[in-house]
Amino acid sequence: MRYLVISDIHSNLEALEAVLEDASGQYDEIWCLGDLVGYGPNPNECVDKVRELPLACVAGNHDWAALGKLSLDDFNPDAQEASRWTQENLNGITRAYLESLPETLVIEDKITLVHGSPRHPIWEYIISIPIALENFSYFETPWCLVGHSHVPVIFRYCEAEGGTGNCEAFIPPVNQPILLTPGERFIINPGSVGQPRDGDPRASYMFIEPEKGIIEYRRVDYPVEKTQAKMKEVGLPPRLIARLSFGW
């Protein structure tokens, strides 16, 4: 089986459609790591699109914020404003779908899916080696797939002498299959579909073949200016609009 892995769509319909078109015919099922909504102008349309797909999905912090399950005091001012707009514009179908999403999924005892981290599935960012190392003890599967940071990265757990462990991180290449060593453990982030933050504005996604131990990262252009025009039309914060052009 070959899976398409996506995360952090953030109501960016153009980016989602570009990824699905680019990946068309190349996967059997989809795994989504949360934050379907928030920041962008098309929350209902993105959820409608996702609901049509052969997909397993977990909840993200912006999904919870849209449902009123998180305090907006924990968000920065731009994210607060976008979350309030999202709350006001969700339809009943979208709301019900987001309510149905679990915090964690374990696929056939082989792969754990979360949004933030296995330790704190909704909120924690895995953005450093020490944080990644601490999180390896919070899941039992060989691989854990995470989103939330919007940055493609792979953390590898390394056994050390004396029974202690260490961790290393690397930025994966694009359009190049990567063979992950059998028996080793990894935390893997596919990057963001709708709001990349690694300096590359193209939508980021990943393919994964668990039986073969192979993953492959992809990037695809989408009409950023179309998304930005929609955001401006509905009055979303200027900084959120501008950042899409630069991938930060």
Q: How would you characterize the overall build of this protein?
A:
The protein has a single domain (3-243), classed as Purple Acid Phosphatase, chain A, domain 2, CATH 3.60.21. It is 29% helix and 21% strand. It contains 8 helices and 12 strands. It has helices at 13-23, 43-51, 61-66, 77-89, 92-100, 129-135, 224-234, 238-243, and strands spanning 3-6, 29-32, 55-57, 105-107, 111-113, 143-145, 153-159, 165-170, 178-179, 186-189, 203-209, 214-220. The strands form 2 sheets. Strands 3-2-1-11-12-9 form a 6-stranded mixed beta sheet. A hairpin with a 3-residue loop joins strand 4 and strand 5. Helix 2 crosses helix 5. The longest helix is centred in the middle third of the chain and has 13 residues, at 77-89. It is globular, with a radius of gyration of 17 Å.
